[in-house]
Design brief:
Two copies of one chain form a homodimer. In chain A, helix 11 links the parallel strand 4 and strand 5. Chain A is globular, with a radius of gyration of 18 Å. The model of chain A has no long low-confidence stretch (mean pLDDT 93). Chain A is α/β, with parallel strands linked by helices and 288 residues long. The first copy, chain A, has two domains: 58 residues, Helicase, Ruva Protein, domain 3, CATH 1.10.8; 216 residues, Uncharacterised protein PF01937, DUF89, domain 3 (Rossmann fold), CATH 3.40.50.10880. Chains A and B meet through helix 1 and helix 2 of A and helix 1 and helix 2 of B.
Chain lengths: 288, 288
Amino acid sequence: MKTFFDCLPCLIRQTLDSVRSTTDDEQTQESILRDVLKELAEMDFQQPPAAMAQAIHRRIRKTTGNLDPYVEKKRRLNDMALKLYPVFARRIEQSANPLELAARLAIAGNVMDLGVKSNLDEAEMIAEIDDCLTTPLDADNVAEFAQAIDEAENILYLTDNSGEIVFDRLLMERLPREKLTAAVRGAPIINDATIEDAEYIRLAEVARVIDNGSDSPGTILDDCSEAFRHHFERADLIIAKGQGNYETLAGSPYPIFFLLRIKCSVIARDLNLPVGTVVLTHSPHAVA
Amino acid sequence: MKTFFDCLPCLIRQTLDSVRSTTDDEQTQESILRDVLKELAEMDFQQPPAAMAQAIHRRIRKTTGNLDPYVEKKRRLNDMALKLYPVFARRIEQSANPLELAARLAIAGNVMDLGVKSNLDEAEMIAEIDDCLTTPLDADNVAEFAQAIDEAENILYLTDNSGEIVFDRLLMERLPREKLTAAVRGAPIINDATIEDAEYIRLAEVARVIDNGSDSPGTILDDCSEAFRHHFERADLIIAKGQGNYETLAGSPYPIFFLLRIKCSVIARDLNLPVGTVVLTHSPHAVA
């Protein structure tokens, strides 16, 4: 997906949120903001917003020398989600349709995106999750998803954010362990999940865990490691979580199920669905 | 008031709204957006946001050749407000405190600001007005406002937006006609009221009407005409409507009462009040 004009104010806001979490020095903040404005003025709008976000956050890290500005926030999100984990694990066990509920919860966890919302408290998170749990998923899509899982030999699960990754784990627990690989980002970018998050929530208990070698908040294949691309190419089912993976992979010729919550008007327009929609959809290559 | 970092995403969003109302040609839109990003990267943040908005909208008018992109929207806002005028005129007549109600309505009308909200329908406007009418104003401030009006020899009323100007007229009807001058902007800028709006709503029936000679969405004195500055300097009571007039005049050494609805976090922080607050406040020079 290309960068739409509407992404520009959002990228500036995201820059501002991020510089503020990274440094209190107003002169550094101003200097980064001015650099990013210049960079946006010259950017190739055919690239996805995640490519621009990658450039912005590289600049912030380079200018401030802080390689992981969100490290504390990520820990807090993981802890918030881990606290909820046993409750939801039990609800899934007791559910008439465990896969569907686990998928909904994984999508609900997608609210933990500090690229879209700079702050998120526990009450807001629980309200968002409740909202997702009362919004039904398209039954046909759920059936196709279940069938794709049954038929797949190699499942690659692309995680999105820290905190959210705990909810991903709940869904991964419904998938065949021996066929499952979970991928995290290759380096810190906003609050996206990295190998540290996977270790913190012990994701290796339910899947083989790899990183994608990239510091983009999405999956830009050309920017990923060869090892990751190897897994990606041989997967016959890719589960892609969140807006960043959607915007970088939508339209690509792979068998992908996208699980996300629509959090901005640009993605809403692209999917022709309202903001807030709980989405389980797939690429044309994902079903026979 | 200086431009805060938080104004930057908002200025980009405003640019985007405005280019979209002005031209359907995406290449022109993109070219203006890139130019504005470059300009923001170099701007003097000590200037108020209204100075930047002025530069942005000059650029849009120059690039598109459209000298008044908001002309139809302004007409529509005036018509919406004129439709409500008789109802509110009657309510003020019947009110126990006509001045206070008229002031509240004038502030309520400040919702008609397309710089903050690109679209506004009648239902939203009526909801906003109702909200303002149930939020009380500070009684001390109202008493000081009434006293300042009683004591003033030369009142200058700085209007803000089209549509809103109809609500300003309701307040002006409570002021002594012979001492009252109403000022509009000197040229079209967003949906700010100009002399055409004043004529359309027959403002001359209740005040002497002048324009300020400037195309800024506020009152940047250095940018105003000498004739306007003459009125401004000799006024012993200035009534300044809206955020644009507030951000350009707050802190200046003049006897000003500010009437506005707080519509953004930057003004909220400056006034130390929450977004949405109905504000009647004054400069230290406005009371004896």
